[in-house]
Amino acid sequence: MHQRVRLAILTVLSETQECKFSTLRDELKLTDGNLNRHLRVLEQASLLQVVKGYEGRRPTTWLRLTRQGRAALRAEIAALEQLVSRVRDASTAHLNNDTDAP
């Protein structure tokens, strides 16, 4: 997962059992086409499942995070936490070095 939008999609889907396409689109402020492109990539990677059906007479698309999607999200979060930790450690080291300078 290299894109923030895809990380955001997985994050939103992790918060619920399933989410309507329109809800996800509105929450992430994406166009239909942009969201569709990201969803295709994530679906091809087996990170989410797309379920099409009807709500009354209206065609509706629901999205669900797969087990692989949950695992990928956890791994991505762990990697990001390590990066943040490195930045914080480096910032602290630089601050300490700056105060030691004459």
From TrEMBL:
<dbReference type="Pfam" id="PF13601">
    <property type="entry name" value="HTH_34"/>
</dbReference>
<dbReference type="GO" id="GO:0003677">
    <property type="term" value="F:DNA binding"/>
</dbReference>
<dbReference type="InterPro" id="IPR027395">
    <property type="entry name" value="WH_DNA-bd_dom"/>
</dbReference>
<keyword id="KW-0238">DNA-binding</keyword>
<dbReference type="InterPro" id="IPR036390">
    <property type="entry name" value="WH_DNA-bd_sf"/>
</dbReference>
<dbReference type="InterPro" id="IPR036388">
    <property type="entry name" value="WH-like_DNA-bd_sf"/>
</dbReference>
<protein>
    <submittedName>
        <fullName>Winged helix DNA-binding domain-containing protein</fullName>
    </submittedName>
</protein>
<feature type="domain" description="Winged helix DNA-binding">
    <location>
        <begin position="5"/>
        <end position="84"/>
    </location>
</feature>
